[in-house]
Write a sequence for this structure.
């Protein structure tokens, strides 16, 4: 398949943009309607754009007719309460698919590593069109929390940890990376997540805000990393055994060292 992609992602697969002055904005996310739609971790979601403008967060391919993660329809009840968040999602001028605010409760590093996942943004995406990526705009101030990216789910050497103070802005090829957030708390974390289609509009936006990769990871004790690896493999093995006992197949990737 041949897609239109952004040169900014060719080497590293993500970019960190200039920080946004989040303190200058009202906390619109606190007034939104959230739905109990689970992702990785203990989450709720407030949809701003969905497949047909309904108050739901399902993948566009799970609707009738099924389609790719493009041409999201604004959820009027929520965008009326969050015009600034809507404007931020629209600022690049790129096509917007799903657009949501996530509320994530505090977790630990081991839990985040277990919950690493890849997105399926480009399911049904027609050949020759723009590759879909995702933006993560941190709304709450969580400087000790990090967005975790891994190109190899089982290899911590491939891990990137991006701090999440208020106003941090990251755009990621989430179909390339396994990703999750380690949120240290104590309050819930809020982030605006938008699906954007690659093309000249997104390229210009990334250039305008000086998109670049992060030079260094925040330090993390090796013992914590080793324990998280152990816990992840244990929980995945338990999950596989439970599914096998139910006569179901586990489609999760297998640890090459198992």
């Amino acid at each position: 398949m041949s897609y239109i992609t952004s040169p900014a992602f060719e080497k590293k697969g993500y970019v960190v943009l200039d920080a946004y002055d989040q303190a200058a904005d009202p906390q619109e996310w606190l007034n939104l309607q959230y739905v109990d739609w689970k992702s990785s971790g203990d989450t709720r979601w407030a949809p701003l754009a969905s497949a047909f403008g309904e108050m739901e967060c399902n993948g566009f391919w799970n609707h009738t007719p099924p389609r790719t993660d493009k041409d999201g329809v604004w959820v009027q009840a929520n965008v009326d309460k969050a015009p600034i968040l809507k404007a931020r999602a629209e600022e690049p001028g790129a096509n917007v698919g799903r657009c949501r605010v996530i509320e994530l409760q505090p977790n630990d590093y081991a839990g985040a590593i277990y919950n690493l996942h890849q997105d399926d943004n480009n399911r049904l995406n027609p050949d020759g069109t723009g590759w879909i990526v995702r933006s993560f705009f941190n709304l709450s101030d969580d400087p000790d929390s990090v967005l975790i990216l891994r190109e190899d789910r089982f290899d911590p050497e491939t891990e990137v940890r991006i701090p999440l103070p208020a106003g941090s802005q990251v755009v990621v090829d989430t179909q390339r990376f396994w990703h999750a957030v380690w949120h240290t708390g104590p309050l819930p974390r809020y982030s605006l997540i938008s699906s954007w289609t690659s093309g000249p509009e997104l390229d210009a936006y990334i250039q305008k805000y000086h998109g670049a990769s992060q030079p260094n990871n925040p330090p993390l004790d090796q013992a914590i990393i080793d324990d998280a690896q152990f816990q992840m493999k244990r929980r995945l093995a338990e999950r596989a055994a439970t599914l096998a006992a139910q006569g179901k197949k586990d489609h999760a990737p297998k640890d090459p060292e198992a």
In short: The CA atoms of residues 21 and 121 lie 29 Å apart. The beta strands are 14-17, 43-50, 73-74, 96-104, 132-138, 142-150, 159-164, 169-172, 178-182, 189-197.
